[in-house]
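Q: Can someone sanity-check these two? First one:
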Amino acid sequence: MKAAIITGLNQTPVYGDFAEPVADSGEELIAVTAAALTHLTKSRASGSHYSADRVFPAVVGVDGVGKTKDGRRVYFTLPAAPFGAMAEKTRVRSSHCIPIPDGLDDVTAAAIANPGMSCWAALVERARLQPGETVLVNGATGAAGRLAVQVAKHLGATKVIATGRDQDAVEKLTAFGADAVIPFHLDDSDPSSVTKYEHALQEQFSEGVDVVLDYLWGKSAETIMISAAKAGPEGRAIRFVQIGEMSNQKVELSGAAFRSSALVLMGSGINSVPFTALLAAIRGVFQAVNPAKLKIYTKAVPLSQVEKTWNADTGPDRVVFLPGK
């Protein structure tokens, strides 16, 4: 069968032939129709993610959409190594599959599952968001952060604040439900850039923020935590949920930031959230797509173009590979 294959760490997958999988007892043999290119897929393929299998040669791809042998259309996740989602066929535990609602097309389902799961699980399982609360999304201009703004609104947040490094992209988030936007450009050589960001954040925290979803980590997350300590209402708990590290930076934070605020720091992802809850989050997102009019930009690409697309800049589009093309 045709597949996207890697033979070692930090490689770009190549399109080639790979042995077809054979499903064991308790598994499904899936004819794959769509598989999205996500940060999780890329980091697992490079071996940098803590959940990476590091089995080679292997087919890349963490999750996707396809049909079972009996014709059911399903979303699947975590295929058994060395098989992955970016192939004409894969094998997956039956318990790792969920049905796709009628009216939700394969490309959208594949594209929205991972970013939708990350924010839904963070808000529902970790932060325990309550209707009427305020949510700040740090790093909201990417596909995941943009979806998080929409999901937070759908789950009952009355105010959503969006931050990001691209001013034009941040300002456009009002069309996705953001009530306030804070663009930032943090430069260690220009202390005023940090001060400006702190002041904008403190204004929001003084009015009350209940949940922070952080997709960036690094200096921006550090500034948020410091601003929360300086300006947050006394005793008001702020649940800070760490989801991604797109900044590739570390956080340097004194203990005073925690002692002087009711900041609760937690992570959300594989292992910190039960697997059954992650699947439930994806079901929730699938069911919300149409009633909540969730938007995600997609770009369908033949799997044969995986090598030239893997590291390409596709802007706001979530690339979805189509096996067999």
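And here is the second, same format, sequence then tokens:
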Amino acid sequence: MYLRKHYRTIVLSDIHLGTTHSKVQEVSDFLRKVNCDRLILNGDIIDGWHIKKNGTRRWQPKHTQFFKVLMKLMENCGTEIIYVRGNHDDFLDALAPIRLGNIQVVKDYVLETEHGRYFVTHGDIFDRVTSQMKWLANLGDAGYTFLLWFNSWYNRYRTWRGKPYYSLSQRIKQKVKTAVSYISDFEKTLAEFAQARKFNGVICGHIHHPANTYYGAIHYLNSGDWVETLSALVEDEDGNWRVVYYSDMLQTLAEESEESQPSCLISAI
């Protein structure tokens, strides 16, 4: 039994449903433990590139279950869902913009908050490799997939040794100069765009690197991913933003369950 944490807004991105590396069970569990007024799915939720390459054989019941969790959020919590297309789910371009009940599919979105206006984009259109050199993006995707495969085997070894999950792929990216430079350039480009368009902030995904920082007066937010970091962006009741990690949530819930009993129960999805 536990009290579900309520947020004004939750932002998720880069779940990559349809791939073997998607942490779909973890993200579904995360959503079962929270509720929100607004859920922004900020691109690369469904990995159309891999589905197109491999067919639907990698689509599993747990991937379908994720969408059932979304439906329960809308039904039980009245959550509004905004699905912003990414580069891996660019097949949605043919649909966007469209609204179906409490769901809308868009190419980008403007979020009005009490702290100002935020431009919401997956971020791929600000990535020259993705937007102008798709062949190179596909090559990079293949290399990234191999890195994730190696990371999976490395963590099986860590589990066998009784050690917690460790994102080796994230650590490698943080140590490679070109990767660090790419992330920095990406963040600055989006911040400059937001400033030029008179936004107060920008919310993105795409690079699998969670962030909550400022470039001058521009608030830069990145929700991370559910392949490596298992992170999300949340806006609390006072309009403040932070990055939350699934592992930290589990730890907090474990500590709270030991310290006290909940005063009421909100049924799990």
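A (reply): Looked at the second one. The chain has a mean pLDDT of 82. The two ends are 13 Å apart (CA to CA).
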